[in-house]
Amino acid sequence: MHADRLAGLGVSPGAGYGPAHRLVRDVPEPPRAARHGGDARAELLRAEQALERVAADLAARGDQAGGEARDVLAAQAMMARDPDLAARVAELIEQGVAASRAVFDAFAGYRELLAAAGGYLAARAADLDDIRDRVVAALEGLALPGLPADPAEPYVLVARDLAPADTVLLDPATVVAFVTEEGGPTSHTAILARALGVPAVVGCAGAGAIPPGTPLLVDGSTGVVRLSPDEDEVARAVRAAEQSTALLAAVSGAGATADGHAVPLLANVGGPADIAPALAAGAEGVGLFRTEFLFLDRVDPPTWEEQQDAYREVFEAFSGSRVIVRVLDAGADKPLDFLPPPAPEPNPALGERGVRLFRRFPEVLAAQLEALARAAKGTSARVQVMAPMVATAEEAVWFGEACRAAGLPSAGVMIEIPAAALRAADLAAVTGFFSIGTNDLTQYTLAADREAGALAGLQDPWHPAVLDLVALTAAAAGGSGRDCGVCGEAAADPALACVFVGLGVTSLSMAASALPRVRAALARHTVDDCRRAAAAARAAGTASAARAAARAELPALADLSL
Ligand code: PEP
Ligand code: MG
């Protein structure tokens, strides 16, 4: 008898109800002793063609999906085209090993390397299994197990973890929720679920044992998954979700609290593909343009001419509005081949990343700033530029000087490192504005790698220690008349968004799909409500107590089913 209730981490809010459909990878392991018939050249050609077919298919799926999914899948296609992997496959085939077994073994070696590297690379090891299965299936003439082609009714997708290739072309009208056994708040499943607006629960122990077809009610806000709920429970959840959608749709316009305190609501974008959803959701500008997403698959630094076009497209779409561009944030979870750290790093998240890499490659920063300055000239967007991973005032000064030399007067810094938050007053004296990156700030405050699913419980921006750092930063910014936004994933949590406003944060930037919820939450609470919620959260001893204490001061969230 299976439990009737499982709990995981709610990473994409909303309720979804439908039968469980389990995505199982059952591409069988090719036999260890599989040998080819003797024509190594022909066998190698088969292997190369299968690898290329899979790479091209992944890239095509990404192009079709656009946005962040395109970048994720382009990175996967690159893995399938890795020359070292191809060389290992060739070596094994040369020794008489059949193509499918050679691919299987070569991927196993690649996987070990990634796992040993730790951090972002280790987290990508699961993606490798997906690519391997696709190549083996192509070589063996097997159909890849996947999603029902023509489902009779909307369903809940249950999986160990979802590979980007599984999720990008999903239709939110057919898949009502995701439940995965693995994954944390910054896993691909979480990011893509939020982008699609599909409720999702990750890190849900026991999900693998849910019998297929079991009716599931998934709450992507609380992380609770109910198995075979009774009709009343489903009816209540569906009614609440419908009411919430109607209430959210009724709030529009610029972000503001119930008593009229303006809080600009901005969008996080990774490139031109994210413009349309951001505009449709009423974004008042861009609070974080993650420029590295444009160049994930590049081995040579992009020239300023190449960069200019992509930047101009975003600026023109937001003419008259604020667009905050983050210069390339390379390293750790976002490695760029053309901006590598000098040597393999034992702890990439603590290594030469973000602004630190620009100290080593100033010419790459100069080219990017030149492209931004030129793109900004032709538009009326209010372009601001910020540096990631700034730890010291000295780095902020260096970056500001580089921006001004390029003709970009508005330069700011991201606050992602506890040292920067603790000494925010020193930074405020030498920079134009702050944008708090709560993803990294949480990672460094709790010393919990954001890519490590097992540490998901610690990667909680509600932790009072993180809130204290946000409070210090906002106070320092306020004291010197500087803007202080939040652009990490935490800004997309309606309750936390209110807490941030209560702490003195002046703008919020998030995935476009989160804007309606945050807009509605702010519109139902006054600045004083937000301040009380912030004080209650900071007075709590744990993340979950902080969340509960803040919500108790924000009663309208429950009316909105948020
Ligand atoms: C952050 O760290 O919160 C942030 C917004 O930057 P990224 O997630 O791209 O590191
Ligand atoms: Mg960051």
UniProtKB/TrEMBL annotation:
Keyword annotations of the record: Cytoplasm, Kinase, Magnesium, Metal-binding, Phosphotransferase system, Sugar transport, Transferase, Transport
- Any one Gene Ontology molecular-function term assigned to this protein's record: phosphoenolpyruvate-protein phosphotransferase activity
One Pfam family from the record: PEP-utilisers_N
> Which prosthetic group or cofactor does it need?
Mg(2+)
Compartments reported by the entry: Cytoplasm
All copies of domain Phosphotransferase system enzyme I N-terminal, residue ranges? 8-124
For whether the record's keyword set contains Transferase, the answer is: yes
Catalytic reaction equation(s): L-histidyl-[protein] + phosphoenolpyruvate = N(pros)-phospho-L-histidyl-[protein] + pyruvate
Which residues does the annotated region (Disordered) include? 19-39
Could you tell me which residue ranges the PEP-utilising enzyme mobile domain spans? 153-223
EC category name: transferase
* KW Manganese (keyword) present: no
Q: Which domain of life is it from?
A: Bacteria
User: Can you give the residue ranges of the PEP-utilising enzyme C-terminal domain?
Assistant: 256-525
Report the EC code(s) recorded for this entry.
2.7.3.9
By sequence similarity, the record places it as follows: Belongs to the PEP-utilizing enzyme family.
Q: What role does this protein play?
A: General (non sugar-specific) component of the phosphoenolpyruvate-dependent sugar phosphotransferase system (sugar PTS). This major carbohydrate active-transport system catalyzes the phosphorylation of incoming sugar substrates concomitantly with their translocation across the cell membrane. Enzyme I transfers the phosphoryl group from phosphoenolpyruvate (PEP) to the phosphoryl carrier protein (HPr).
Name of the protein this chain belongs to: Phosphoenolpyruvate-protein phosphotransferase
> Whose protein is this, by species?
Microtetraspora malaysiensis
What would be the name of the gene that encodes this protein?
Answer: ptsP
